[in-house]
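2 proteins. here.
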Amino acid sequence: MWLGAHIGISDGLGEAPRQGRAIGCDAIQIFSKSPQMWAGPPIADEAAAAFRAAVQEVGLKATAVHHGYLINLATPKKAMLGRSRKALLDEVQRATKVGVDGLILHPGAHMGEGPDNGLPRIIESLNWVIEKTPESPVRLLLENAAGQGTALCSTFAELRRVLDGVTERGRVGVTLDTCHLYAAGNDFRTPESYGRLVDRLASELGVEEVRAFHLNDAKAELGSHLDRHENIGKGQIGLEGFRSWLNDPKWSETPGYLETPLSDDDYAAYVTDLASLRSVLSSPNPPSTAEPPAPSHRPSSRSRRAGPAAGKAA
Protein backbone atom coordinates (compact mmCIF):
# COMPACT_ATOMS: atom_id res chain seq x y z
CA MET A 1 0.00 0.00 0.00
CA TRP A 2 1.17 3.52 -0.77
CA LEU A 3 1.04 5.28 2.60
CA GLY A 4 0.15 8.94 2.94
CA ALA A 5 -1.95 11.51 4.76
CA HIS A 6 -4.26 14.50 4.43
CA ILE A 7 -2.12 17.61 3.98
CA GLY A 8 -3.26 21.22 4.34
CA ILE A 9 -2.96 23.75 1.50
CA SER A 10 -2.88 27.06 3.33
CA ASP A 11 0.81 27.43 2.48
CA GLY A 12 -0.07 27.01 -1.20
CA LEU A 13 -1.04 24.11 -3.43
CA GLY A 14 2.55 23.73 -4.58
CA GLU A 15 3.77 23.24 -1.01
CA ALA A 16 1.40 20.40 -0.09
CA PRO A 17 3.25 17.67 -2.05
CA ARG A 18 6.57 18.82 -0.61
CA GLN A 19 5.23 18.87 2.94
CA GLY A 20 3.77 15.42 2.47
CA ARG A 21 7.01 13.95 1.16
CA ALA A 22 9.00 15.67 3.89
CA ILE A 23 7.10 13.66 6.52
CA GLY A 24 7.33 10.37 4.62
CA CYS A 25 4.19 10.27 2.47
CA ASP A 26 4.03 8.43 -0.83
CA ALA A 27 0.51 9.77 -1.43
CA ILE A 28 -1.40 12.83 -0.27
CA GLN A 29 -5.01 13.92 0.02
CA ILE A 30 -5.97 17.60 0.12
CA PHE A 31 -8.97 19.90 0.16
CA SER A 32 -9.05 22.19 -2.86
CA LYS A 33 -10.89 24.82 -0.79
CA SER A 34 -12.32 25.21 2.69
CA PRO A 35 -14.52 22.19 3.46
CA GLN A 36 -17.05 24.48 5.10
CA MET A 37 -17.71 26.44 1.89
CA TRP A 38 -20.10 25.59 -0.94
CA ALA A 39 -17.73 27.09 -3.49
CA GLY A 40 -14.20 28.34 -3.19
CA PRO A 41 -12.26 30.99 -5.05
CA PRO A 42 -11.07 29.94 -8.51
CA ILE A 43 -7.80 28.03 -8.60
CA ALA A 44 -5.20 30.09 -10.41
CA ASP A 45 -3.51 28.44 -13.37
CA GLU A 46 -0.14 29.02 -11.70
CA ALA A 47 -1.24 27.32 -8.48
CA ALA A 48 -2.58 24.28 -10.31
CA ALA A 49 0.61 24.03 -12.35
CA ALA A 50 2.71 24.32 -9.19
CA PHE A 51 0.83 21.44 -7.58
CA ARG A 52 1.20 19.21 -10.63
CA ALA A 53 4.90 20.02 -10.91
CA ALA A 54 5.54 19.37 -7.22
CA VAL A 55 3.77 15.98 -7.37
CA GLN A 56 6.14 14.96 -10.15
CA GLU A 57 9.17 16.56 -8.51
CA VAL A 58 8.84 14.67 -5.23
CA GLY A 59 7.65 11.41 -6.75
CA LEU A 60 4.22 10.95 -5.18
CA LYS A 61 2.46 7.74 -6.20
CA ALA A 62 -1.13 8.97 -5.81
CA THR A 63 -3.13 12.10 -5.04
CA ALA A 64 -6.73 12.85 -4.09
CA VAL A 65 -9.04 15.71 -3.21
CA HIS A 66 -11.58 15.23 -0.43
CA HIS A 67 -14.84 17.10 -1.07
CA GLY A 68 -16.39 19.58 1.34
CA TYR A 69 -18.63 18.68 4.27
CA LEU A 70 -21.77 20.54 3.16
CA ILE A 71 -22.69 18.34 0.20
CA ASN A 72 -25.56 15.84 0.60
CA LEU A 73 -26.40 14.00 -2.62
CA ALA A 74 -29.25 12.04 -0.98
CA THR A 75 -31.23 14.88 0.56
CA PRO A 76 -34.98 15.04 -0.18
CA LYS A 77 -34.85 18.85 -0.05
CA LYS A 78 -34.81 20.07 -3.64
CA ALA A 79 -32.93 23.29 -2.99
CA MET A 80 -30.26 21.50 -0.97
CA LEU A 81 -29.97 18.75 -3.58
CA GLY A 82 -29.49 21.25 -6.38
CA ARG A 83 -26.88 23.13 -4.39
CA SER A 84 -25.09 19.88 -3.51
CA ARG A 85 -24.93 18.80 -7.13
CA LYS A 86 -23.53 22.15 -8.23
CA ALA A 87 -20.98 22.01 -5.41
CA LEU A 88 -19.88 18.53 -6.45
CA LEU A 89 -19.57 19.68 -10.06
CA ASP A 90 -17.32 22.48 -8.84
CA GLU A 91 -15.27 19.98 -6.83
CA VAL A 92 -14.77 17.76 -9.89
CA GLN A 93 -13.71 20.72 -12.01
CA ARG A 94 -11.24 21.85 -9.34
CA ALA A 95 -9.85 18.34 -8.88
CA THR A 96 -9.45 18.04 -12.64
CA LYS A 97 -7.56 21.32 -12.82
CA VAL A 98 -5.03 20.36 -10.14
CA GLY A 99 -4.59 16.91 -11.68
CA VAL A 100 -5.38 14.53 -8.85
CA ASP A 101 -6.31 10.89 -9.39
CA GLY A 102 -9.49 10.79 -7.33
CA LEU A 103 -12.19 12.87 -5.66
CA ILE A 104 -13.29 11.27 -2.38
CA LEU A 105 -16.87 12.02 -1.36
CA HIS A 106 -19.47 11.11 1.24
CA PRO A 107 -22.47 9.68 -0.62
CA GLY A 108 -25.04 11.42 1.56
CA ALA A 109 -27.85 10.96 4.11
CA HIS A 110 -31.50 10.21 3.33
CA MET A 111 -32.75 12.38 6.24
CA GLY A 112 -35.54 10.03 7.23
CA GLU A 113 -36.84 9.06 3.79
CA GLY A 114 -35.05 5.70 3.72
CA PRO A 115 -32.39 4.11 1.48
CA ASP A 116 -34.85 3.35 -1.34
CA ASN A 117 -35.37 7.08 -1.77
CA GLY A 118 -31.87 8.29 -0.90
CA LEU A 119 -29.78 5.91 -2.99
CA PRO A 120 -31.48 6.81 -6.31
CA ARG A 121 -30.79 10.49 -5.59
CA ILE A 122 -27.09 9.73 -5.13
CA ILE A 123 -27.05 7.83 -8.43
CA GLU A 124 -28.88 10.63 -10.26
CA SER A 125 -26.50 13.20 -8.77
CA LEU A 126 -23.38 11.29 -9.83
CA ASN A 127 -24.72 10.73 -13.34
CA TRP A 128 -25.60 14.44 -13.61
CA VAL A 129 -22.08 15.51 -12.60
CA ILE A 130 -20.34 12.92 -14.78
CA GLU A 131 -22.43 13.94 -17.80
CA LYS A 132 -21.27 17.53 -17.34
CA THR A 133 -17.56 16.57 -17.04
CA PRO A 134 -17.07 14.06 -19.87
CA GLU A 135 -13.39 14.85 -20.39
CA SER A 136 -12.36 14.63 -16.73
CA PRO A 137 -10.06 11.72 -15.82
CA VAL A 138 -10.83 12.15 -12.11
CA ARG A 139 -12.50 9.11 -10.53
CA LEU A 140 -15.26 9.80 -8.00
CA LEU A 141 -14.63 7.62 -4.96
CA LEU A 142 -17.56 6.92 -2.63
CA GLU A 143 -16.48 6.71 1.00
CA ASN A 144 -18.15 4.11 3.21
CA ALA A 145 -20.06 5.56 6.16
CA ALA A 146 -19.91 4.51 9.81
CA GLY A 147 -23.68 3.97 9.89
CA GLN A 148 -24.37 7.13 11.88
CA GLY A 149 -27.85 8.66 11.67
CA THR A 150 -29.34 8.37 8.20
CA ALA A 151 -25.98 8.29 6.37
CA LEU A 152 -26.01 5.90 3.44
CA CYS A 153 -23.41 3.46 2.12
CA SER A 154 -22.22 1.95 5.39
CA THR A 155 -22.67 -1.47 3.76
CA PHE A 156 -21.03 -3.05 0.74
CA ALA A 157 -24.49 -3.74 -0.70
CA GLU A 158 -25.45 -0.05 -0.71
CA LEU A 159 -22.12 0.94 -2.25
CA ARG A 160 -22.64 -1.72 -4.93
CA ARG A 161 -26.14 -0.44 -5.64
CA VAL A 162 -24.84 3.07 -6.27
CA LEU A 163 -21.96 1.91 -8.46
CA ASP A 164 -24.30 -0.24 -10.54
CA GLY A 165 -26.54 2.77 -11.18
CA VAL A 166 -23.77 4.97 -12.60
CA THR A 167 -23.75 5.02 -16.39
CA GLU A 168 -20.00 5.63 -16.76
CA ARG A 169 -18.64 2.90 -14.50
CA GLY A 170 -15.05 3.86 -15.18
CA ARG A 171 -15.60 7.19 -13.44
CA VAL A 172 -16.48 5.80 -10.01
CA GLY A 173 -15.01 3.61 -7.29
CA VAL A 174 -14.79 3.29 -3.51
CA THR A 175 -12.64 4.58 -0.66
CA LEU A 176 -12.72 2.34 2.42
CA ASP A 177 -12.25 4.07 5.77
CA THR A 178 -11.03 1.60 8.41
CA CYS A 179 -12.60 3.53 11.29
CA HIS A 180 -15.94 3.64 9.48
CA LEU A 181 -15.74 -0.07 8.64
CA TYR A 182 -15.11 -0.92 12.27
CA ALA A 183 -17.78 1.44 13.60
CA ALA A 184 -20.28 -0.11 11.18
CA GLY A 185 -19.69 -3.51 12.77
CA ASN A 186 -17.01 -5.06 10.55
CA ASP A 187 -14.23 -6.75 12.53
CA PHE A 188 -10.87 -7.27 10.84
CA ARG A 189 -8.45 -7.27 13.76
CA THR A 190 -7.23 -10.85 13.28
CA PRO A 191 -6.13 -12.65 10.09
CA GLU A 192 -9.26 -14.81 10.34
CA SER A 193 -11.73 -11.93 10.70
CA TYR A 194 -9.91 -9.98 8.00
CA GLY A 195 -10.18 -12.93 5.64
CA ARG A 196 -13.92 -13.25 6.26
CA LEU A 197 -14.43 -9.53 5.68
CA VAL A 198 -12.46 -9.48 2.44
CA ASP A 199 -14.34 -12.55 1.19
CA ARG A 200 -17.57 -10.67 1.81
CA LEU A 201 -16.13 -7.55 0.20
CA ALA A 202 -15.27 -9.59 -2.89
CA SER A 203 -18.73 -11.13 -3.17
CA GLU A 204 -20.86 -8.09 -2.27
CA LEU A 205 -18.85 -5.23 -3.79
CA GLY A 206 -15.74 -6.42 -5.65
CA VAL A 207 -12.18 -5.81 -4.53
CA GLU A 208 -11.44 -4.08 -7.84
CA GLU A 209 -13.78 -1.25 -6.83
CA VAL A 210 -11.56 -0.21 -3.91
CA ARG A 211 -9.31 2.56 -5.19
CA ALA A 212 -8.18 4.15 -1.91
CA PHE A 213 -8.20 3.76 1.87
CA HIS A 214 -8.51 6.10 4.81
CA LEU A 215 -6.31 4.57 7.49
CA ASN A 216 -7.75 5.60 10.85
CA ASP A 217 -7.94 3.86 14.22
CA ALA A 218 -11.28 4.13 16.04
CA LYS A 219 -12.05 5.77 19.38
CA ALA A 220 -15.36 3.90 19.78
CA GLU A 221 -16.07 0.19 20.01
CA LEU A 222 -17.00 -2.24 17.25
CA GLY A 223 -20.47 -1.51 15.85
CA SER A 224 -20.79 1.83 17.66
CA HIS A 225 -21.71 3.73 14.45
CA LEU A 226 -19.60 6.59 15.80
CA ASP A 227 -17.24 8.31 13.37
CA ARG A 228 -14.43 9.11 15.80
CA HIS A 229 -10.90 8.79 14.45
CA GLU A 230 -7.92 7.87 16.64
CA ASN A 231 -4.19 7.66 16.03
CA ILE A 232 -2.84 4.36 14.78
CA GLY A 233 -2.49 1.79 17.56
CA LYS A 234 -4.18 3.98 20.18
CA GLY A 235 -7.77 3.05 19.48
CA GLN A 236 -10.10 0.08 19.49
CA ILE A 237 -8.68 -1.35 16.26
CA GLY A 238 -5.09 -1.40 17.49
CA LEU A 239 -1.89 -1.60 15.48
CA GLU A 240 -2.29 -5.32 14.73
CA GLY A 241 -5.65 -4.57 13.16
CA PHE A 242 -3.86 -2.88 10.25
CA ARG A 243 -1.36 -5.67 9.56
CA SER A 244 -3.55 -7.69 7.19
CA TRP A 245 -4.63 -4.65 5.16
CA LEU A 246 -1.04 -3.48 4.68
CA ASN A 247 0.38 -6.88 3.77
CA ASP A 248 -2.36 -8.01 1.39
CA PRO A 249 -0.90 -7.91 -2.15
CA LYS A 250 -4.33 -6.87 -3.47
CA TRP A 251 -3.67 -3.38 -2.10
CA SER A 252 0.03 -3.08 -2.99
CA GLU A 253 -0.61 -0.16 -5.37
CA THR A 254 -3.56 1.40 -3.57
CA PRO A 255 -3.11 4.66 -1.62
CA GLY A 256 -3.92 4.75 2.08
CA TYR A 257 -4.40 8.23 3.54
CA LEU A 258 -4.19 9.05 7.25
CA GLU A 259 -6.91 11.28 8.71
CA THR A 260 -5.81 10.78 12.30
CA PRO A 261 -5.80 13.47 15.02
CA LEU A 262 -3.01 16.04 15.00
CA SER A 263 -1.51 17.93 17.91
CA ASP A 264 -0.03 21.41 18.12
CA ASP A 265 3.28 19.93 16.93
CA ASP A 266 2.37 20.25 13.26
CA TYR A 267 2.52 16.87 11.45
CA ALA A 268 4.47 15.00 14.16
CA ALA A 269 1.50 12.69 14.84
CA TYR A 270 1.41 11.74 11.16
CA VAL A 271 5.12 10.89 11.27
CA THR A 272 4.48 8.59 14.22
CA ASP A 273 1.42 7.01 12.61
CA LEU A 274 3.24 6.37 9.34
CA ALA A 275 6.13 4.76 11.21
CA SER A 276 3.66 2.59 13.16
CA LEU A 277 2.01 1.39 9.96
CA ARG A 278 5.34 0.59 8.32
CA SER A 279 6.42 -1.34 11.41
CA VAL A 280 3.85 -4.07 10.75
CA LEU A 281 4.77 -4.60 7.11
CA SER A 282 6.18 -8.06 6.45
CA SER A 283 8.46 -6.62 3.76
CA PRO A 284 10.02 -3.15 3.75
CA ASN A 285 7.89 -0.38 2.32
CA PRO A 286 9.86 2.79 2.95
CA PRO A 287 8.82 6.11 1.48
CA SER A 288 9.77 6.74 -2.14
CA THR A 289 13.51 6.77 -2.69
CA ALA A 290 13.21 10.11 -4.43
CA GLU A 291 14.93 12.66 -2.20
CA PRO A 292 12.34 15.07 -0.81
CA PRO A 293 13.25 18.74 -0.84
CA ALA A 294 13.74 20.35 2.51
CA PRO A 295 10.61 22.32 3.43
CA SER A 296 11.05 26.06 3.15
CA HIS A 297 9.55 26.33 6.63
CA ARG A 298 7.67 24.21 9.14
CA PRO A 299 4.06 23.55 8.16
CA SER A 300 2.04 26.20 9.93
CA SER A 301 -0.71 25.45 12.42
CA ARG A 302 -3.14 26.92 9.93
CA SER A 303 -1.90 24.45 7.31
CA ARG A 304 -2.01 21.58 9.77
CA ARG A 305 -5.56 22.31 10.82
CA ALA A 306 -6.78 22.39 7.21
CA GLY A 307 -7.29 18.62 7.11
CA PRO A 308 -10.34 16.56 8.10
CA ALA A 309 -10.98 16.95 11.80
CA ALA A 310 -10.95 13.81 13.90
CA GLY A 311 -14.44 13.12 15.07
CA LYS A 312 -16.08 14.76 12.07
CA ALA A 313 -17.28 12.88 9.05
CA ALA A 314 -14.05 12.59 7.13
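next one coming up
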Amino acid sequence: MLDSVGGLIHPSAIIEPGAQIGTGVKIGPFCTIGPQVVLEDGVELVSHAVIDGRTRIGQGAKIFPFATVGLAPQDLKYQGEPTETTIGPRTIIREHASIHRGTITGAGITRIGADCLLMAVVHVAHDCVIGDGVVIANNVALGGHVEIGDRAIIGGGAAALQFTRIGTGAFIGGLTGVTRDVAPYSRVFGTRAELQGLNLIGLRRRGVERAQLQTIQAAHKLLFHGGGVFADRVSQTRATYGTDPYIAEILAFIATPSRHGILTNLAGDAE
Protein backbone atom coordinates (compact mmCIF):
# COMPACT_ATOMS: atom_id res chain seq x y z
CA MET A 1 0.00 0.00 0.00
CA LEU A 2 1.18 3.52 -0.79
CA ASP A 3 0.63 6.32 1.67
CA SER A 4 -0.99 9.51 0.32
CA VAL A 5 -1.85 12.50 2.51
CA GLY A 6 -2.61 10.31 5.51
CA GLY A 7 -4.52 7.73 3.47
CA LEU A 8 -3.68 4.47 1.75
CA ILE A 9 -3.63 3.84 -2.00
CA HIS A 10 -3.05 0.33 -3.29
CA PRO A 11 -0.35 0.17 -5.98
CA SER A 12 -2.74 -1.59 -8.39
CA ALA A 13 -5.20 1.34 -8.34
CA ILE A 14 -5.30 3.54 -11.46
CA ILE A 15 -5.68 7.25 -10.72
CA GLU A 16 -5.77 9.50 -13.78
CA PRO A 17 -3.88 12.81 -13.70
CA GLY A 18 -6.20 15.60 -12.61
CA ALA A 19 -8.15 13.59 -10.04
CA GLN A 20 -8.35 15.31 -6.66
CA ILE A 21 -7.77 13.09 -3.65
CA GLY A 22 -8.50 14.41 -0.15
CA THR A 23 -6.76 13.56 3.08
CA GLY A 24 -7.23 10.17 4.71
CA VAL A 25 -8.64 8.59 1.53
CA LYS A 26 -8.34 4.82 1.17
CA ILE A 27 -8.28 3.38 -2.35
CA GLY A 28 -8.16 -0.39 -2.49
CA PRO A 29 -6.93 -2.84 -5.11
CA PHE A 30 -7.82 -2.37 -8.79
CA CYS A 31 -9.91 0.77 -8.39
CA THR A 32 -10.06 3.18 -11.33
CA ILE A 33 -10.39 6.92 -10.78
CA GLY A 34 -11.05 9.26 -13.73
CA PRO A 35 -9.31 12.61 -14.30
CA GLN A 36 -12.27 14.79 -13.24
CA VAL A 37 -13.13 12.90 -10.06
CA VAL A 38 -12.99 14.53 -6.63
CA LEU A 39 -12.71 12.26 -3.58
CA GLU A 40 -13.24 14.32 -0.45
CA ASP A 41 -11.53 13.61 2.88
CA GLY A 42 -11.98 10.17 4.37
CA VAL A 43 -13.55 8.48 1.34
CA GLU A 44 -12.95 4.73 1.13
CA LEU A 45 -13.06 2.65 -2.06
CA VAL A 46 -12.82 -0.95 -0.90
CA SER A 47 -11.64 -2.49 -4.19
CA HIS A 48 -12.50 -2.79 -7.92
CA ALA A 49 -14.63 0.38 -7.85
CA VAL A 50 -14.82 2.57 -10.95
CA ILE A 51 -15.37 6.31 -10.49
CA ASP A 52 -15.43 8.42 -13.65
CA GLY A 53 -16.77 11.60 -15.19
CA ARG A 54 -17.27 14.92 -13.38
CA THR A 55 -17.96 13.15 -10.09
CA ARG A 56 -17.63 14.30 -6.49
CA ILE A 57 -17.72 11.75 -3.66
CA GLY A 58 -18.52 13.38 -0.33
CA GLN A 59 -16.53 13.20 2.88
CA GLY A 60 -16.46 9.79 4.55
CA ALA A 61 -18.45 7.99 1.84
CA LYS A 62 -17.66 4.31 1.32
CA ILE A 63 -17.93 2.41 -1.96
CA PHE A 64 -17.73 -1.37 -2.14
CA PRO A 65 -16.32 -3.69 -4.83
CA PHE A 66 -17.54 -3.55 -8.43
CA ALA A 67 -19.70 -0.45 -7.90
CA THR A 68 -19.55 2.17 -10.65
CA VAL A 69 -20.24 5.87 -10.17
CA GLY A 70 -20.39 8.63 -12.77
CA LEU A 71 -20.23 6.55 -15.94
CA ALA A 72 -22.12 7.60 -19.08
CA PRO A 73 -25.91 7.20 -18.88
CA GLN A 74 -27.87 4.54 -20.74
CA ASP A 75 -29.55 7.22 -22.84
CA LEU A 76 -29.22 7.08 -26.62
CA LYS A 77 -29.46 10.88 -26.78
CA TYR A 78 -26.34 11.32 -24.66
CA GLN A 79 -23.41 12.59 -26.73
CA GLY A 80 -20.69 12.91 -24.12
CA GLU A 81 -21.75 16.26 -22.66
CA PRO A 82 -19.89 17.26 -19.46
CA THR A 83 -22.62 16.37 -16.98
CA GLU A 84 -22.11 15.49 -13.33
CA THR A 85 -22.64 13.11 -10.42
CA THR A 86 -22.46 13.93 -6.73
CA ILE A 87 -22.54 11.58 -3.75
CA GLY A 88 -23.16 13.07 -0.31
CA PRO A 89 -21.07 12.65 2.84
CA ARG A 90 -21.08 9.29 4.64
CA THR A 91 -23.20 7.59 2.00
CA ILE A 92 -22.53 3.87 1.56
CA ILE A 93 -22.70 2.26 -1.88
CA ARG A 94 -22.60 -1.53 -1.86
CA GLU A 95 -21.42 -4.14 -4.35
CA HIS A 96 -22.33 -3.88 -8.06
CA ALA A 97 -24.39 -0.71 -7.63
CA SER A 98 -24.38 1.59 -10.68
CA ILE A 99 -24.95 5.35 -10.60
CA HIS A 100 -24.92 7.19 -13.92
CA ARG A 101 -24.16 10.84 -14.57
CA GLY A 102 -26.84 13.33 -15.58
CA THR A 103 -27.87 14.47 -19.06
CA ILE A 104 -28.53 17.84 -20.68
CA THR A 105 -32.18 16.84 -21.10
CA GLY A 106 -32.40 16.96 -17.29
CA ALA A 107 -30.64 19.15 -14.77
CA GLY A 108 -27.27 17.83 -15.93
CA ILE A 109 -26.54 16.11 -12.62
CA THR A 110 -27.35 12.91 -10.76
CA ARG A 111 -27.40 13.71 -7.06
CA ILE A 112 -27.41 11.42 -4.00
CA GLY A 113 -27.60 13.00 -0.57
CA ALA A 114 -25.81 12.42 2.70
CA ASP A 115 -26.04 9.34 4.95
CA CYS A 116 -27.74 7.15 2.35
CA LEU A 117 -27.39 3.38 2.01
CA LEU A 118 -27.58 1.90 -1.47
CA MET A 119 -27.44 -1.88 -1.17
CA ALA A 120 -26.07 -4.37 -3.69
CA VAL A 121 -27.03 -4.13 -7.38
CA VAL A 122 -29.00 -0.90 -7.03
CA HIS A 123 -29.23 1.06 -10.28
CA VAL A 124 -29.63 4.84 -10.18
CA ALA A 125 -30.20 6.19 -13.69
CA HIS A 126 -29.29 9.60 -15.07
CA ASP A 127 -30.66 12.77 -13.48
CA CYS A 128 -32.08 11.07 -10.39
CA VAL A 129 -32.20 13.18 -7.23
CA ILE A 130 -32.10 11.28 -3.93
CA GLY A 131 -32.38 13.06 -0.59
CA ASP A 132 -30.56 12.50 2.69
CA GLY A 133 -30.84 9.35 4.78
CA VAL A 134 -32.50 7.28 2.06
CA VAL A 135 -32.22 3.48 2.22
CA ILE A 136 -32.49 1.59 -1.07
CA ALA A 137 -32.44 -2.20 -0.74
CA ASN A 138 -30.93 -4.79 -3.08
CA ASN A 139 -31.78 -4.94 -6.80
CA VAL A 140 -33.81 -1.72 -6.94
CA ALA A 141 -33.95 -0.02 -10.35
CA LEU A 142 -34.62 3.72 -10.63
CA GLY A 143 -35.40 5.09 -14.08
CA GLY A 144 -34.10 8.44 -15.24
CA HIS A 145 -35.18 11.65 -13.47
CA VAL A 146 -36.67 9.87 -10.45
CA GLU A 147 -36.82 11.98 -7.28
CA ILE A 148 -36.78 10.49 -3.77
CA GLY A 149 -37.26 12.58 -0.65
CA ASP A 150 -35.29 12.42 2.58
CA ARG A 151 -35.42 9.26 4.72
CA ALA A 152 -37.55 7.28 2.28
CA ILE A 153 -37.08 3.50 2.26
CA ILE A 154 -37.26 1.48 -0.96
CA GLY A 155 -37.69 -2.29 -0.57
CA GLY A 156 -35.69 -4.91 -2.46
CA GLY A 157 -36.47 -5.51 -6.12
CA ALA A 158 -38.68 -2.41 -6.42
CA ALA A 159 -38.60 -0.28 -9.55
CA ALA A 160 -39.58 3.33 -10.24
CA LEU A 161 -40.69 4.61 -13.64
CA GLN A 162 -38.88 7.57 -15.17
CA PHE A 163 -39.91 10.97 -13.76
CA THR A 164 -41.79 9.51 -10.79
CA ARG A 165 -41.45 11.17 -7.38
CA ILE A 166 -41.33 9.43 -4.01
CA GLY A 167 -41.91 11.78 -1.10
CA THR A 168 -40.07 12.29 2.16
CA GLY A 169 -40.42 9.41 4.62
CA ALA A 170 -42.32 7.16 2.21
CA PHE A 171 -42.00 3.38 2.39
CA ILE A 172 -42.03 1.33 -0.83
CA GLY A 173 -42.46 -2.41 -0.35
CA GLY A 174 -40.27 -5.02 -1.99
CA LEU A 175 -40.95 -5.91 -5.67
CA THR A 176 -43.25 -2.90 -6.03
CA GLY A 177 -43.50 -1.12 -9.36
CA VAL A 178 -43.92 2.63 -8.85
CA THR A 179 -45.61 4.27 -11.85
CA ARG A 180 -47.25 7.27 -10.12
CA ASP A 181 -45.97 9.73 -7.56
CA VAL A 182 -46.02 8.56 -3.93
CA ALA A 183 -46.90 11.26 -1.41
CA PRO A 184 -44.66 11.88 1.63
CA TYR A 185 -45.03 9.49 4.58
CA SER A 186 -47.13 7.04 2.55
CA ARG A 187 -46.81 3.25 2.62
CA VAL A 188 -47.03 1.44 -0.71
CA PHE A 189 -47.06 -2.25 -1.66
CA GLY A 190 -48.03 -4.39 -4.66
CA THR A 191 -46.67 -5.55 -8.01
CA ARG A 192 -48.22 -2.36 -9.36
CA ALA A 193 -47.98 0.06 -6.46
CA GLU A 194 -51.07 0.29 -4.27
CA LEU A 195 -51.41 2.83 -1.50
CA GLN A 196 -51.82 1.10 1.86
CA GLY A 197 -51.83 4.08 4.22
CA LEU A 198 -49.33 5.98 6.30
CA ASN A 199 -45.79 4.92 7.11
CA LEU A 200 -46.59 4.98 10.82
CA ILE A 201 -43.36 3.28 11.84
CA GLY A 202 -41.33 5.92 10.05
CA LEU A 203 -43.31 8.74 11.65
CA ARG A 204 -42.88 7.23 15.11
CA ARG A 205 -39.14 6.97 14.52
CA ARG A 206 -39.16 10.68 13.74
CA GLY A 207 -40.62 11.31 17.19
CA VAL A 208 -44.17 12.19 16.12
CA GLU A 209 -46.43 11.83 19.15
CA ARG A 210 -49.68 9.93 19.25
CA ALA A 211 -52.06 12.90 19.04
CA GLN A 212 -50.29 14.32 16.00
CA LEU A 213 -50.15 10.85 14.42
CA GLN A 214 -53.92 10.63 14.72
CA THR A 215 -54.28 13.99 13.01
CA ILE A 216 -51.97 13.00 10.17
CA GLN A 217 -53.77 9.67 9.81
CA ALA A 218 -57.18 11.37 9.59
CA ALA A 219 -55.93 13.82 6.98
CA HIS A 220 -54.25 11.07 4.95
CA LYS A 221 -57.45 9.03 5.01
CA LEU A 222 -59.49 11.99 3.81
CA LEU A 223 -57.03 12.77 1.02
CA PHE A 224 -56.38 9.34 -0.37
CA HIS A 225 -59.26 7.12 0.76
CA GLY A 226 -62.22 9.50 0.84
CA GLY A 227 -65.00 9.78 -1.72
CA GLY A 228 -65.76 12.45 -4.28
CA VAL A 229 -63.39 14.43 -6.46
CA PHE A 230 -59.72 14.45 -5.50
CA ALA A 231 -59.38 18.23 -5.94
CA ASP A 232 -62.25 18.75 -3.53
CA ARG A 233 -60.64 16.45 -0.99
CA VAL A 234 -57.39 18.42 -1.30
CA SER A 235 -59.26 21.66 -0.57
CA GLN A 236 -61.07 20.12 2.39
CA THR A 237 -57.84 18.69 3.79
CA ARG A 238 -56.09 22.05 3.48
CA ALA A 239 -58.94 23.81 5.27
CA THR A 240 -59.19 21.22 8.06
CA TYR A 241 -55.63 20.04 8.62
CA GLY A 242 -53.38 22.41 6.66
CA THR A 243 -51.69 23.90 9.73
CA ASP A 244 -50.03 20.57 10.57
CA PRO A 245 -46.49 20.67 9.10
CA TYR A 246 -46.62 17.08 7.85
CA ILE A 247 -49.94 17.64 6.09
CA ALA A 248 -48.64 20.92 4.68
CA GLU A 249 -45.69 19.01 3.22
CA ILE A 250 -47.99 16.43 1.64
CA LEU A 251 -50.19 19.16 0.16
CA ALA A 252 -47.14 20.98 -1.24
CA PHE A 253 -46.00 17.71 -2.84
CA ILE A 254 -49.42 17.27 -4.46
CA ALA A 255 -49.36 20.86 -5.74
CA THR A 256 -46.02 20.34 -7.50
CA PRO A 257 -46.42 19.56 -11.24
CA SER A 258 -46.37 15.82 -11.92
CA ARG A 259 -45.72 13.75 -15.05
CA HIS A 260 -47.70 10.74 -13.82
CA GLY A 261 -50.15 12.00 -11.19
CA ILE A 262 -50.43 11.14 -7.50
CA LEU A 263 -51.02 7.56 -6.37
CA THR A 264 -54.30 7.12 -4.50
CA ASN A 265 -56.32 3.97 -3.89
CA LEU A 266 -59.28 5.28 -5.92
CA ALA A 267 -59.58 4.78 -9.67
CA GLY A 268 -60.59 7.88 -11.59
CA ASP A 269 -59.23 10.44 -9.16
CA ALA A 270 -58.37 13.80 -10.64
CA GLU A 271 -54.63 14.45 -10.79
